[in-house]
From TrEMBL:
Protein name: Polyketide cyclase
The family this protein is said to belong to: Belongs to the AHA1 family.
Superkingdom of the organism of origin: Bacteria
Domain Activator of Hsp90 ATPase homologue 1/2-like C-terminal, first and last residues per copy: 12-151
Gene3D superfamilies assigned: 3.30.530.20
SUPFAM superfamilies documented for this protein: Bet v1-like
Length: 152
């Protein structure tokens, strides 16, 4: 099991970033790499609340984890500390044993020295079939979208 970590400065307040981590429409917009479309099936943003999301490649491919074009995953909000941290437990919906298993995703928010928010995201216990490099690239794209969504 592997891990990836990413830090990004976003020129928005911690409360604004925290809200965007827990708002289904915001998540649909930002938590999706370029070249994919997001669909929120369920989203209950409270501690213990569950979610289910599908990311579908825009162009035909065989790279999907759930089917040829789609990555579907479900999980729950394990811990919520207002304006400070969101912890999610996530699992791909797949028949591939190399992609199965529960991952933990932690978003930590801190004040930036020059204003804004430092967002540190960490994916822990990623399954062995998930490329850490690809995960980091996809996550970088998503964090850039989060910044575009929130920054003036």
């Amino acid at each position: 099991m592997g891990a990836t970590k990413l830090t990004r400065h976003i020129r928005a307040s911690r409360p604004a970033v925290y809200r965007a981590l827990l708002d289904a429409e915001a998540v649909r917009q930002w938590m999706v790499p370029e070249g994919m479309t997001s669909r929120i099936h369920a989203f209950d943003p409270r501690q213990g609340g569950e979610f289910r999301i599908s990311l579908t490649y825009d162009l035909p491919t065989t790279a999907g984890k759930t089917d040829a074009r789609t990555d579907t995953f479900h999980g729950r909000f394990s811990s919520l500390v207002p304006d400070t941290e969101v912890v999610q437990t996530v699992e791909f919906e797949t028949t591939d044993p190399a992609l199965q298993g529960e991952m933990t995703i932690t978003y930590s928010l801190a004040d930036g020295e020059e204003g804004g928010t430092i967002v540190t995201g960490r994916h822990d216990d990623t399954p062995p079939g998930l490329s850490l490099e690809d995960n980091e690239i996809g996550w970088s794209m998503s964090m850039a979208k989060l910044a575009r969504l929130l920054e003036p």
